[in-house]
Amino acid sequence: MFAEYAWLIPIFPLIAFVIVGFLGNKLFKKAEGGAPIAIIMAAISCVLSLLVAYETLTTGEVYKASLEWMVVDGFTFNMGIYIDNLTALMLIVVSFIATLVVIYSVGYMHSEGEKKRRYYAIISLFIGVMLGLVLASNYLQMFIFWELVGLCSYLLIGFWNTKPSAASAAKKAFLVTRIGDIMLMLGLIIFFVGFKGNLDFDYIFNNVDLFTGGDSLLTLGTFLIFGGAIGKSAQFPLHDWLPDAMEGPTTVSALIHAATMVKAGVYLVARSYPVLIETPDTLIIIAAVGGFTALFAATMALNNTNIKRVLAYSTISQLGYMFLALGASGYLFAVSGDPNVGYMAGMSHLMNHAFFKALLFLSAGAVIHAVHTEDMMRMGGLSKKLKITSAVMLLGCISIAGIPPFSGFWSKDEILATVFETGAYNTGFYLLYAFGIIAAFITAFYMFRLWFLTFSGKPRDQEIYDHAHEAPKVMWIPLVILAVLAVGSGLAGILLGMEGTIEPVAYLSTMHIASGIDMIVDMFQHPLTYVSIIVAVLGIAVAYLMYYSKTIDPARISESKVGKKLGNVLLARYGFTAGYDLFGIKVIYGISKAVDWFDRNIIDGVVKLISLICTLVGKLLRFVQNGLVQTYASIVVVGVSLVVILLLAFGGMF
Amino acid sequence: MIPLEWFLCLSAILFVIGAVGVLTKRNAIIVLMCVELMLNAANINFVAFSSYTGGLTGQVFAVFAIAIAAAEVAVGLAIVMTLYKARDTVNVDEVKLLRW
After folding, report:
1. Which chain B residues are closer than 8 Å to A634 by Cβ?
2. Smallest CA–CA distance from B19 into chain A, residue
3. Is the pLDDT confidence value at A165 over 60?
């Protein structure tokens, strides 16, 4: 009943975009650059989203509606709405966090002056197209919105466009994700050919066996689609843009580069799950990339001193967990045929992560707002000044570290349990489990390192400390709301049976849905659960010893020979940034120069040669026109005579 | 009756005299007169064939050609007149402004 109005959800923020974006600076000069409009529209679509999501999750019905968009050569393209439990989950996450972030922005962006209007316009556009992305009913429509969120990301990373680092970060984000987008497009072309021109989710998911072109082509198609997810969700080896994307305002980092847009890749893979389970090879790749990225990105957060960069690496790492969950769960289903909890674990991790990572980013934003620096080495002791911020950020840190009963624990533990279970069928997954466990340890460590460096101990920069102040109400109220969710969303999800509702269509409801309490009891009877808890506690303990009680001096590790080298490798992001630059400058620029040479000399050369010949011949022939009528007449007479003679001689007229 | 070939020979001789005159004479008036010779050579052919085949078409065509020749001479002489007024000469070799 609410789902019929779901098409309105993306419309409201788009209206806000049009009003704020096009109706002049003067109109909104006194009204925070259009913030009230953006907030109201986001809030309306949030309420509508929650109603639609509630309806879908309780009834469990899939709502689909579509209109014919265009017909080309007998192929019909549709535009429509497809709402199942996965869409519902995304709707909750996106619209809710978006609304909170826009409210928070009123405080955070207060001193931006005239640029505020641009900010609120683009962020409204982003909310609209992101909601459009999750509601899309076919791959083509999804791809259109997919590109639009990329555009918004580009515009917002480069919000401070006079800053060279921000401008180049925006370009980098756009170009690197473009590699993934091209792969996605190729994957869609394979799907388009294989499914005979029908890209509707509804058709494809029910007719995967009608794919023409064989298993290997389907595997290639799903792999290329995952390629799109790699780019958008910043997975190895296209992860390098996300840390740079932190050049944008912190609110943008929280909304786009932590909670929503980077989840689009995970959403794409989860959405394609019914196709993916037919191609186990791709699922192994997904799990391997996810597991490796989870560990790989976490290590880079170990010694970074920029508060937002640490959170960015953490985001990449957590996204890796989600891909690991989807890959392992799909593979397990493909080989064993039994439904498992991995998919739900991945999806609830998506939700939990959105809450606690948005919380962490917005708290970091409150800190940056207070001290005007992102360098943790110049903070310290801030918990006395920023009481609320430090408290909610601590909750976020505990949640991401995976301490029960905070939300991060439940989903992360289920993911690791699924991966371990899959190891029985393919021993490679034991390795991925090890990656996951080590990454969990590192995550707990660096999150608490971040918290201790920022909030505990003595101020390292007295001047900054003296000027620090608690964030205004409009900023800390969203933080508190997010903190409540970051603490409780995992447990509430399990107790309300949401874990059981979020299951893929492909399982055809053969899943044994345990009640929430049973699930929790099961979990705590499993020895692996204690492994994850111990690892998390260990990580926190090491961070405590190093950065709070100072029992272990961190400088002793970082100043030692090996430590210094290792630290430099991590700060250089394993040389990936340099590698990209090298690749870009040497290889691509080299090829460009060669192509340029070919164009200038060979292509242009041929054209120039032809024109040169024409001019020369013209120069010679123009002397024929000497202005004497009698010469012309002689030529005519000679010519006609010749024609007549030739006709008589060879024309066969006689 | 005079055979057809004689007429054709006469017209050929007239035509060649006219053509050579057009190509070699320097005086614009003589060039115009030579053009008349060529036209009349053609007229002789028309009339000869007309009488030889017994139709009237050739004679009608000759009358047309004479009319057009008259008009052409009028225009041509007018051009020569203005040329003489402007350049003080009727020598075609000296009139070669329109060239490369």
Report:
1. 23
2. A637
3. yes
Work out the average pLDDT over B27-32.
92
Q: How confident is the model at residue A502 (pLDDT cuts 50, 70, 90)?
A: low
Instruction: State how far residue B32 is from chain A, nearest Cα, in angstroms.
Output: 12
Q: Within a domain: residue A89?
A: no
Q: What is the C-alpha to C-alpha distance for residues A32 and A102, in angstroms, rounded to an integer?
A: 12
pLDDT at A508: 52
- A70-84, A263-277, A360-374, A492-506: least confidently modelled range: A492-506
| Domain co-membership, A459 together with A562 | yes
CA-closest candidate to residue A324, choices A442, A445, A408, A235: A235
Q: Give the distance from residue A632's alpha carbon to the nearest chain B alpha carbon, in angstroms.
A: 9
* Contact (Cβ atoms closer than 8 angstroms) between residue A191 and residue A204: yes
Residues A601 and A498 in one domain: no
**pTM for the full model?**
0.79
CA–CA separation, A646 and A644 (whole Å): 5
Q: State the average pLDDT over residues A19-37.
A: 77
Tell which of A628, A636, A638, A641 to mutate to test the B interface (max B CBs under 10 Å).
A628
**Can you tell me the distance from the alpha carbon of A22 to that of A29, in angstroms, rounded to the nearest whole number?**
13
Report ipTM (2 d.p.): 0.86
Facing A634 at nearest CB: one of B23, B92, B93: B23
Q: What percent of chain A clears pLDDT 70, i.e. is strictly above it?
A: 96
A513 and A610 in a single domain? The answer is: no
Look at residue A73 and give its three-state secondary structure: coil
Bridge partners (DSSP) of residue A68 are A78
Tell me if A83 sits within 8 A of A201, measured CB to CB: no
Place of tokens 């198609």: A221
List the alpha helices (DSSP H) in A456-515.
462-467, 473-495, 498-501
Half-sphere exposure (CA, 13 Å, Cβ side) for A28?
24
Mean predicted confidence (pLDDT) in A51-62: 84
CA distance B96 to chain A (A): 4
Instruction: State the nearest Cα–Cα gap between A640 and chain B, in angstroms.
Output: 13
Q: How far is B30 from chain A (nearest CA, A)?
A: 13
* Final residue before a domain boundary, out of A536, A567, A598: A567
**CA atoms A237, A238, A240, A243: torsion sign:** negative
Strand A63-72 with A75-83, pairing: antiparallel
Domain B4-88 in this protein, CATH class? mainly alpha
In the structure, what pLDDT confidence band is assigned to residue A504 with cuts at 50, 70 and 90? low
Closest CB to B97: pick one of A627, A630, A634: A627
- Residue found under tokens 């007719």: A207
Q: In sequence order, what DSSP letters do the residues of A543-597 get, joined into one string?
A: HHHHHTS-SS-HHHHHHSHHHHHHHHHHHTGGGHHHHHHHIIIIIIHHHHHHHHH
On whether the CB atoms of residues A351 and A89 are closer than 8 A, the answer is yes
Measured between CA atoms, the residue of chain A closest to residue B31 is: A630
DSSP readout, A424-468? TT-THHHHHHHHHHHHHHHHHHHHHHHHHHHHSSS-SSHHHHHH-
**Confidence (pLDDT) at A2:** 81
Instruction: Report CB contact under 8 Å: B99, A634.
Output: no
Q: Are residues A297 and A407 in the same domain?
A: yes
A49's tokens = 């989203």
The predicted-structure confidence for A485-499, as pLDDT tens digits, reads as follows 888 888 887 777 665
Residues of A in contact with B92 (CB under 8 A): 628-630
Size of interface A-B (CB pairs under 8 A): 29
Nearest to A633 among B22, B93, B95 (CB): B22
Q: What string of H, E and C letters represents the secondary structure of A79-125?
A: EEEEECHHHHHHHHHHHHHHHHHHHHHHHHCHHHCCHHHHHHHHHHH
Q: Does B22 touch chain A (CB under 8 A)?
A: yes
State the total domains in chain A: 2
